[in-house]
Amino acid sequence: MAPYTGADADMQTRLATPWCNPGSYGHPSLCARPCIYIAKNGSCHVDGCDYCHMAHDLPVAKLNQRQRYVLQRLSVKVKMDLVLEAVRGGLHREGLTDQAESLLCLLEQEASKHSQQASHRDQRRQVYDLRKALSRMTVADTIHAVQDVLPEHVIQSFQNLRRALLPSVVPDPLFPMISKCELSLKEALALFPAPQAAAQMWIL
Ligand SMILES: [Zn+2]
Ligand SMILES: [Zn+2]
Predict the structure, then answer these.
(1) Which residues sit opposite 52 in a β-bridge?
(2) In whole angstroms, what is the distance from residue 139 CA to residue 172 CA?
(3) Where are the alpha helices (DSSP H) in 100-196?
(4) Which domain of life is it from (predicted)?
């Protein structure tokens, strides 16, 4: 069979995991936040939804308004050090340190590019508070919280890691998990192709 290219390759990737929308990649440790449509209605109408469609047992830990305000005003160096520590801790907690080696390497490189500035006592207290808050958050939320200072290739490395980690919950049976909202007509036709006999007759 000829290799898939471009859009076909992308679609083939999705068909290889038809029960997994982009937001569910890396579930349960690196996925996005739970989808509110799934929580409310049990199904989601967003094509290629960027939120997780799998079951989450733990409540979502996130930064409060004050913590977000403080984070936005920190220097790039302090932010990078915070995210590196939180991501490293989160990946270790999930047993993913080895698989995430290249992501951690890139984060370390970025953190080392910026020089440390003297901080006053109030800021040190705020950073301590932020460090505690980030350590309770998922790796995906931590990356999201500081994405304004992360170069594209670091974010891409995280996305690659997520895609490499398919959800550990394999639905059984497989196909009933596909809601009509998640599957486009093109994908449905690719999954359940029409018989080829007629087309072959024309070619012959
Ligand atoms: Zn999830
Ligand atoms: Zn959704």
Answers:
(1) 34
(2) 28
(3) 101-113, 121-135, 139-145, 152-164, 185-191
(4) Eukaryota
Distance 77 CA to ligand 1 centre (A): 30
Instruction: Give residue 2's pLDDT band: very low, low, confident or very high (50, 70, 90).
Output: very low
Encode pLDDT of 144-193 as tens digits. 999 989 999 999 999 999 988 876 554 444 444 444 344 455 544 554 55
pLDDT at 9: 42
Q: Which ligand has the minimum distance to the alpha carbon of residue 138? A: 1
Domain ranges of the chain: 17-54+167-184, 65-155
Mean predicted confidence (pLDDT) in 25-48: 90
Q: Measured in angstroms, how far is the CA atom of residue 88 from the centroid of ligand 2?
A: 28
How many Å lie between the centroid of ligand 1 and the Cα of residue 17?
Answer: 15
Residues 6+ apart with CB under 8 A from 110: 80, 150, 151, 154
Instruction: Report which bound ligand comes closest to the CA of 179.
Output: 2
Q: Tell how far the Cα of 122 is from the centroid of ligand 1, in angstroms.
A: 36
Q: Which ligand sits nearest to residue 43's alpha carbon?
A: 2
The CA distance from 4 to 84, in Å, is 36
What is the Cβ-side half-sphere exposure of residue 177, based on CA atoms within 13 angstroms? Answer: 14
Q: Which ligand is nearest to the CA of 49?
A: 2
Contact (CB, 8 A) for 182 and 21: yes
Per DSSP, 156 falls in state H
> What does each C-alpha distance from 27 to 54, 72, 139, 169 come to in angstroms?
7, 28, 11, 8
